[in-house]
Design a protein that fits this description.
160 residues, mainly alpha, 5 helices, 58% helix, flat
């Protein structure tokens, strides 16, 4: 009789541990799944993001995709800030000639103002370190071509 009771208790304890694990896991995912507001498409932040993409500070943005949430925009701002030292070195490095330096300096000042505006507007989200971006794939592509016939020669002068 005692062996039967212990086997039932063991099953109950296993189920209890499983349910506690499921509850804790779902609570953690609920906290990270909280949505942030969507930024409308007519907002100037999209123009600023386009400028940062054009200057090579943001490499992961797809320009035709949108609207973005505030969290996604913060990820783009963080990416731009991470690439900023290389941008600064490229625009103000010793290999830049004097003729190019004035135009590049104006571009740098322009980008600095954009980054300053974005940091000021999204300062609460930038200070919040709870956001975790999980992207298991950096880049994935697949290309395939199938021809069911042999190559065909085309006359370059077809009379048109």
């Amino acid at each position: 009789m005692t062996g039967w009771v212990f086997s039932i208790m063991r099953v109950c304890v296993k189920n209890l541990v499983f349910y506690i694990f499921v509850i804790l896991f779902s609570m953690a995912s609920l906290e990270s799944a909280q949505a942030t507001g969507i930024v409308p498409l007519n907002d100037p932040v999209y123009r600023h993001l386009d400028k940062l993409v054009a200057h090579g500070l943001i490499k992961t943005r797809i320009s035709s995709q949108g609207p973005y949430t505030r969290r996604e925009i913060v990820f783009f701002i963080q990416e731009a800030l991470n690439h900023y030292p290389a941008f600064e070195k490229k625009y103000l490095g010793p290999e830049v000639s004097f003729d190019q330096s004035s135009g590049r300096l104006l571009s740098k000042v322009y980008i600095d103002r954009i980054l300053e505006r974005l940091q000021k507007r999204f300062h609460k989200e930038l200070e919040n370190k709870k956001f975790v971006k999980f992207s298991p794939l950096e880049n994935l592509s697949f290309s395939y071509q199938y021809l069911d016939q042999g190559p065909v020669t085309v006359d370059p002068n077809n009379g048109l």
